[in-house]
């Protein structure tokens, strides 16, 4: 299964699973007046958008480069991720507001054994989704699938908190439901900030990480025929990078020989660094230029 098909499967499973859980938790949250379960329902609603944005973003980003989009459509997934983070901010504001009102008015949960079953069903569903997406991630090394997998794992922790809240509230421990509702809402805010910043960095063409850059430079330095390099640039294109730089070689080499050095180096970088999909190397003869 290729990475785009695997991401499509992960997105569809996430949409189906989260719609089911959002409706289930939303209904019982309203019936029981549980703010923590309501916050958890909104979290699942946010996850629907997350999976939907993953599906749509993956569909667009999988398109090949064309005359209007010479570098492909890879950034589409990050545009949709940013939209998703904004929706999550709105949802978290709503749940925080409801939880604070619950604390002020000292609202109590209408306890039902069904609330326990809702949490257990959620934990089981999310565990199955986590296992499936984690397997898909290991097969494809796709960052979008990894994000979905971690999201399912986090939801297991969030719903476990909700379960604890319901059990404690049923034993007349006051305020715990509203407090946990706020904690879950803040977790949604934290997740939204992470998604927003990751999307922002890619859309603003943040360079490749220092570790990978240093490894690429070390690969270049292994070639004794290359005197030095200049103008190293890295631009994100979707989930991978395009890099470019200038190498300086002996000016007495023929055009074929100097460009063969560049061609071999391009192949080596592409083969050794899966996060780099295109390497553009400009060749210059050695001159009195400061090495960097």
Which tags fit this structure?
single chain, about 290 residues, mainly alpha, Alpha-lytic protease prodomain-like, Alpha-Beta Plaits, 2 domains, about 10% strand, elongated
Shape: elongated
Structural class: mainly alpha
Question: Uncertain spans, ≥5 residues at pLDDT below 50?
Answer: 288-292
Beta-strand residue fraction:
5-15%
Distance between the termini: 43 Å
- Main sheet summary: 3 strands, mixed
The level-1 CATH class of the largest domain: Mainly Alpha
Return the domain count: 2
Walkthrough of the structure:
By secondary structure, this protein is mainly alpha-helical. The protein folds into two domains: 3-203, Alpha-lytic protease prodomain-like (Up-down Bundle), CATH 1.20.1510; 210-285, Cation efflux protein, cytoplasmic domain (Alpha-Beta Plaits, 2-Layer Sandwich). It has eight helices and three strands. The chain has helices at residues 3-32, 35-61, 76-105, 113-140, 143-170, 176-203, 210-221, 255-272, and strands spanning 226-237, 240-249, 276-285. Strands 1-2-3 form a three-stranded mixed β-sheet, with helices on one face. Helix 1 packs antiparallel against helix 2. The longest helix has 30 residues, at 3-32. It starts with a helix and ends in a 7-residue tail after the last strand.
């Amino acid at each position: 299964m290729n990475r785009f098909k695997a991401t499509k499967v992960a997105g569809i499973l996430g949409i189906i699973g989260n719609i089911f859980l959002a409706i289930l938790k939303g209904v019982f949250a309203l019936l029981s007046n549980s703010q923590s379960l309501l916050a958890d329902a909104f979290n699942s609603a946010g996850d629907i958008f997350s999976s939907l944005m993953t599906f749509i973003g993956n569909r667009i980003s999988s398109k090949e480069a064309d005359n209007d989009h010479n570098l492909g459509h890879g950034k589409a997934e990050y545009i949709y991720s940013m939209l998703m983070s904004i929706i999550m901010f709105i949802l978290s504001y709503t749940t925080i507001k409801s939880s604070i009102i619950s604390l002020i008015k000292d609202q109590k949960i209408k306890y039902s054994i069904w609330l326990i079953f809702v949490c257990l069903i959620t934990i089981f569903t999310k565990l199955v989704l986590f296992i499936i997406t984690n397997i898909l991630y290991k097969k494809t090394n796709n960052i979008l699938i990894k994000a979905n997998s971690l999201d399912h794992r986090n939801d297991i922790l969030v719903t476990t908190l909700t379960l604890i809240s319901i059990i404690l509230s049923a034993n007349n421990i006051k305020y715990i439901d509203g407090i946990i509702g706020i904690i879950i809402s803040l977790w949604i805010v934290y997740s939204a900030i992470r998604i927003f910043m990751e999307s922002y960095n890619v859309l603003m063409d943040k360079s490749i990480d220092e570790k990978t850059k240093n490894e690429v430079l070390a690969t270049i330095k292994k070639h004794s025929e290359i005197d030095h390099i200049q103008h190293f640039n890295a631009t994100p294109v979707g989930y991978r990078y395009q890099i470019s730089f200038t190498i300086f070689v002996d000016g007495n080499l023929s055009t074929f020989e100097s460009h063969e050095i560049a061609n071999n180096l391009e192949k080596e970088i592409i083969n050794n660094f899966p996060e780099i999909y295109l390497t553009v190397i400009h060749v210059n003869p050695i001159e009195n230029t400061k090495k960097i």
